[in-house]
């Protein structure tokens, strides 16, 4: 928590931190080891062989889907995750249609070709049409990201009914400071290419999270790990906001984090390696085969 100081006239003034003197790498700001530097933090692995990377991607993607299953994010056949393939970069892996998240394994993942149809690689199972329209538009518009995910989690879809972003109310919500789009329309179940493109446009050129009005949440990431952490964090923040709004409606004043402190915090916690480390500290890793 920032320190609160008293000025000479007795009024409270808030101390604001700055990045001056801190490590340039946002991940390195968040942890320390021995003074001699003999401890290192394990982060995203680097691969020389794209086939080895493919197996890593599939293992973490299957774990992400099972993690969603544990969190109760399944809603019938709705919901999908895609991750770019390391061997065929114009293809992406996708979970099969109408298979519960909690039962997904590497062998059930489908590789979708650039034409939008199931390729001969991977599982020979059907995919979600709405998922194809949403994810194909995102992967085309955002070559900077590798993974995208959307499902109908309860708290996320409840807050989506307001068609507005969350407020920056807590340290965790700074993940979404200047990092959250809102698609403030609802064109029905996504069965047309144009609706998928509208959603991708709402995500914009740099945001990694988006609220789809009357629909649910959407997040993207440099890794599937980052994407799934951002999704669950946004869903929890939607729940927190719903609770705060209920209290505020009964006369309790809410406090929104000011722009300077939100921006300072965001410059560290939004870094993609930090979000990767966050999910590695959750129960997510217990689902990796």
TrEMBL record:
Organism: Fistulina hepatica ATCC 64428
Pfam families, A to Z: Aldolase_II
Protein name, entry field: Arad-like aldolase/epimerase
Transmembrane segments: none
Class II aldolase/adducin N-terminal domain boundaries: 59-242
GO molecular function: actin filament binding
A GO-annotated cellular component: cytoskeleton
NCBIfam families from the UniProt entry: PRK06208.1 (NF004855)
Domain of life: Eukaryota
InterPro entries: Aldolase-II_Adducin_sf, Aldolase_II/adducin_N, Aldolase_II/adducin_N_sf
């Amino acid at each position: 928590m920032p320190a609160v100081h008293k000025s000479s006239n007795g009024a409270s003034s808030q101390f604001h931190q700055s990045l001056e003197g801190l490590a340039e790498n946002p991940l390195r700001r968040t942890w320390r080891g021995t003074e001699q530097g003999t401890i290192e933090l394990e982060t995203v692995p680097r691969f020389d062989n794209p086939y080895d990377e493919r197996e890593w991607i599939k293992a973490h993607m299957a774990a992400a889907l099972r993690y969603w299953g544990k969190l109760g994010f399944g809603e019938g056949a709705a919901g999908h995750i895609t991750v770019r393939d390391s061997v065929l970069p114009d293809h992406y892996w996708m979970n099969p249609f109408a298979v519960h998240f909690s039962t997904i394994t590497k062998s059930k993942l489908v590789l979708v070709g650039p034409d939008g149809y199931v390729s001969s690689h991977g599982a020979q199972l059907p995919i979600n049409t709405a998922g194809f329209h949403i994810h194909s538009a995102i992967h085309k518009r955002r070559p900077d990201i590798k993974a995208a995910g959307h499902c109908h989690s309860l708290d996320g879809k409840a807050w989506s009914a307001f068609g507005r972003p969350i407020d920056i109310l807590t340290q965790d919500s700074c993940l979404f400071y200047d990092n959250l789009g809102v698609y403030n329309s609802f064109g029905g179940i996504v069965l047309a290419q144009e609706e998928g493109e509208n959603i991708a446009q709402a995500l914009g050129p740099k945001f990694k999270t988006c609220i789809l009005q009357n629909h649910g949440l959407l997040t993207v990431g440099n890794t599937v790990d980052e994407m799934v952490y951002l999704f669950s964090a946004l869903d929890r923040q939607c729940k927190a906001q719903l609770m705060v709004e209920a209290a505020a409606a009964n006369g309790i004043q809410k406090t929104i984090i000011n722009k300077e402190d939100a921006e300072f915090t965001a410059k560290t916690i939004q870094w993609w390696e930090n979000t990767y480390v966050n999910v590695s500290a959750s129960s997510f890793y217990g689902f990796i085969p």
